[in-house]
């Protein structure tokens, strides 16, 4: 066999041959390490170096030795932004119009990135980089998030060497559903556990291992925090100091932040504060109770962000200790603007608004001391989201600047000669992939919608790399072209041609406060036409104005969510929350089957959720017990007869009524042995899914300790029949007996 490309020589024997080994080209000296830090739902004005009262010394330190980009943009939602980041492509064009949670049935919204699109980690790996993802992914369709995959849209299937974090859009910070590489993580969560700390520990571990075992090659690390997406959770020592800070309210906070932004040079001196969003009340008009609650909820957010910054600091310190910091490009950004999803009053328990059952101010005030804790994952009211996006209007989900302007800090001591400066060139998250690839020594392969902004590292006066960028989300639309931006906020059900468009001169109107539509009708007409051209070119169509909630609750005919019958077995893997079957909003018949059961056997048969929201079916002291918890309200039903021994079936039938209530019937076979009315059911009970044969997370019931696993080998199957159609006769009869 010939070896034409072998630089050595092959003779008949080793003595007559000359060996050769590939030598490292010392990538580390030529190429920077790359660390991209993605925060979640963090507003443009929430970093200290962007005008905030919130302490972010780590991010501020990176800004002081690097650059702040004040005209950097993202999409209004997390999955599309992460798609743009990792592909350099506009998100509609590669299949991620909306969140990865659902496949809408159209090519632009499959819930995953098209398989023929190369992702940044895979391309960097070809250039000798190690590629690591720690934290949030949110680019796998919900129906593919299972213990058996399929894994082709998991991080390792898209180019990362290692992954540790969570796959869906958000998670509890104290009891998260975690994955490592291609498998679920089964672990206990101690009283002092926090996801942010865990993620930074793992990021440090990956970096340490890389610098030891691949010391001549660079690394790419994407650290995607769960923070600051709700639920807000952090040690109370971080939260309490901010109560007094934010007692001044959101109106004064906006004014103070804009003033500091001007002092810091990140907003021009003539920048105006966009008018208060219509749905937000003036702080002075609020009651004392409202002010008290809202202040504590904002304090939880602030403590959450500071806590995250502190632990990011541990990673930065470790890079410095390892001698890697100077040649590491660190980018810190948010995936979209601050979120109004806490609604008018916010939440001491995020499960309330997420289940569509917001609680009153009076009810929430009873739980002030729990805000931010294990049992008080909070969300602030929309007024504080408005303040987070100072000086802009609107929020996440919207294409106004409050939804799409992101703070970005870039630090690279070896590659950026100037420090502490501000860059004002227009840029977008699609520009980051080509920027990173150019620094890695590879021209980004076409097609690519973004362009490198590396030229802006050295100079303030180089032009923006592109002239045009469009946005679309939930029917809201916008386009930027050569310094002008046209924006429309779509109203559901209204013809798109009837939408009211606004026009802004972004070079003279930093906060987009002065609508120029009436002054420049021809320019606006040209901008709208250009938007439609971009829509055609980037697979934006068909437009879809269903709300976020409507889209998330849609059940495409794929995955567990589409099945009417599911058969589980004790000892099998956890069923994740993204399966969309963990709630109690659907009528269902749940049946546990036993063979040769002994009377003394007991334990959990099925548990969904946790003690803040969930349900559990278990056998204790010989009797079948069902408990349902929703926002602290507990409903219990105990069988009026012992569960028989031998071969038998037992379970419950749940019949949902209008108004979120339900009738619950305990069953031994077809025999009714107990009944109770559940006052409130919900599709979202908590951030934890289903376990079969045990209660694995923050226990649903107070009546047992630990997992309370059903140890008896007699327990064979647990069957769930979703009864979206009329109930079968025997279950219907059982239901009628409760009337």
Helix/strand layout:
Blueprint lengths: L26 H4 L2 E7 L17 H8 L2 E3 L2 E2 L4 H10 L32 H7 L3 E7 L25 E5 L12 E2 L2 E2 L10 H19 L5 E6 L11 H4 L2 H4 L3 H16 L23 H34 L6 E7 L16 H4 L6 H5 L16 H7 L12 H4 L3 E4 L9 E3 L3 E2 L3 H8 L28 E6 L2 E6 L2 E5 L12 E5 L15 H17 L10 H6 L11 E4 L19 E10 L5 E8 L2 E8 L2 E8 L2 E6 L7 E11 L5 E7 L2 E8 L11 E3 L22 E8 L6 H8 L3
Parallel strand pairs: 1-8, 1-9, 2-11, 3-12, 4-5, 4-8
Antiparallel strand pairs: 2-10, 5-6, 6-7, 9-10, 13-14, 14-15, 15-16, 17-27, 18-23, 18-27, 19-20, 19-26, 20-21, 21-22, 23-24, 24-25
Helix pairs in contact: 5-9, 8-12
Could you explain how this protein is built, in words?
22% of the residues lie in helices and 21% in strands. With 739 residues, it is α+β, with helices and mostly antiparallel strands. Strands 7-6-5-4-8-1-9-10-2-11 form a ten-stranded mixed β-sheet, sandwiched between helices. Strands 17-27-18-23-24-25 form a six-stranded antiparallel β-sheet, with helices on one face. Helix 5 runs parallel beside helix 9 (288-321). It is globular, with a radius of gyration of 27 Å. The chain starts with 26 loop residues before the first helix and ends with a helix. The model is unreliable at 726-739 (pLDDT under 50).
Question: What key attributes describe this structure?
Answer:
alpha+beta; globular; 27 strands; ten-stranded mixed β-sheet; disordered C terminus
């Amino acid at each position: 066999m010939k070896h034409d490309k072998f630089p050595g020589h092959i003779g008949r024997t080793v003595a007559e041959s000359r060996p050769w080994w590939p030598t490292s080209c010392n990538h580390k000296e030529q190429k920077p390490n790359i660390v991209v830090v993605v925060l979640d739902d963090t507003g443009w004005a929430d970093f200290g170096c962007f005008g905030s009262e919130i302490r972010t010394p780590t991010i501020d330190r990176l800004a002081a030795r690097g650059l702040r980009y004040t005209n950097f943009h993202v999409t209004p939602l997390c999955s599309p932004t992460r798609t743009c980041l990792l592909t350099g492509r506009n998100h509609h064009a590669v299949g991620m119009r909306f969140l990865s949670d659902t496949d809408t049935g159209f090519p632009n919204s499959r819930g995953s990135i098209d398989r023929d699109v190369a992702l940044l980690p895979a391309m960097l790996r070809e250039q000798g980089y190690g590629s690591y993802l720690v934290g949030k992914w949110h680019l796998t369709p919900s129906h593919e998030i299972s213990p058996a995959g399929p894994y082709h849209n998991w991080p390792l299937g898209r180019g990362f060497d290692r992954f540790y974090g969570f796959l869906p859009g958000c998670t509890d910070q104290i009891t998260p559903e975690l994955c490592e590489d291609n498998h679920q993580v089964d672990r206990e969560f101690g009283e002092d556990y926090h996801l942010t700390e865990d993620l930074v520990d793992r990021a440090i571990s990956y970096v340490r291992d890389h610098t030891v075992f691949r010391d001549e090659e660079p690394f790419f690390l994407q650290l995607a925090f769960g923070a600051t997406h709700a639920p807000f959770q952090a040690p109370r020592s971080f939260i309490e100091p901010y109560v007094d800070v934010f007692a001044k309210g959101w109106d004064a906070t906006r004014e103070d932040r804009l003033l500091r932004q001007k002092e810091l040079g990140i907003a021009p001196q003539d920048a105006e504060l966009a008018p208060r969003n219509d749905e937000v009340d003036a702080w002075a008009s609020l009651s004392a109770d409202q002010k008290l609650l809202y202040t504590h909820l904002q304090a939880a957010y602030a403590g959450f962000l500071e806590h995250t910054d502190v632990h990011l600091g541990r990673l930065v310190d470790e890079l410095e200790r390892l001698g890697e910091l100077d040649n590491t490009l660190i980018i810190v950004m948010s995936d979209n603007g601050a979120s109004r999803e806490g609604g008018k009053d916010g939440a001491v328990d995020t499960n309330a608004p997420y289940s569509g059952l917001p609680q009153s101010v009076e009810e929430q005030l009873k739980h002030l001391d729990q805000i931010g804790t294990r049992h008080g994952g909070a969300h602030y009211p929309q007024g504080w989201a408005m303040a987070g996006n100072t000086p802009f209007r609107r929020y996440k989900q919207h294409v106004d600047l409050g939804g799409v302007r992101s703070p970005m800090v870039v630090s690279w001591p070896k590659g950026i000669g100037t420090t502490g400066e501000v860059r004002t060139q227009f840029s977008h998250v699609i520009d980051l992939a080509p920027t990173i690839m150019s620094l890695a020594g590879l021209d980004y392969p076409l097609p690519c919608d973004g362009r490198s902004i590396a030229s802006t590292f050295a100079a303030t006066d180089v032009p923006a790399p592109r002239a045009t960028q469009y946005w679309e989300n939930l029917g809201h639309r916008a386009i930027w072209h050569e310094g002008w931006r046209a924006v429309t906020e779509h109203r559901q059900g209204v013809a798109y041609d009837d939408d009211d468009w606004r026009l802004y001169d972004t070079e003279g109107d930093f906060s987009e406060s002065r609508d120029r539509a009436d002054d420049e009708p021809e320019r606006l007409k040209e901008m709208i036409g250009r938007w439609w051209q971009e829509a055609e070119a980037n697979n934006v169509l068909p437009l879809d104005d269903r709300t976020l909630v409507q889209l998330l609750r849609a059940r495409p005919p794929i995955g567990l969510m589409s099945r009417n019958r599911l058969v589980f077995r004790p000892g099998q893997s956890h069923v994740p929350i993204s399966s969309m079957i963990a709630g109690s909003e659907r009528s269902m018949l749940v049946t546990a089957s036993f063979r040769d059961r002994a009377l003394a056997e007991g334990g959990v048969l099925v548990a969904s959720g946790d003690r803040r929201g969930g349900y559990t079916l278990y056998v204790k002291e010989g009797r079948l017990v069902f408990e349902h918890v929703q926002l602290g309200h507990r409903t219990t039903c105990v069988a009026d007869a012992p569960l028989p021994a031998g071969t038998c079936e037992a379970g419950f039938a749940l019949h949902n009524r209008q108004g979120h209530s339900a009738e619950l019937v305990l069953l031994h076979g077809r025999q009714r042995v107990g009944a109770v009315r559940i006052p409130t059911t919900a599709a979202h009970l908590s951030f934890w899914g289903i376990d079969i044969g045990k209660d694995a997370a923050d226990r649903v019931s107070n009546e047992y300790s630990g997992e309370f696993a059903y140890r008896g080998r007699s327990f064979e199957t647990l069957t769930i029949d979703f009864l979206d159609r009329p109930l079968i006769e025997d279950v219907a009869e059982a239901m009628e007996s409760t009337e």
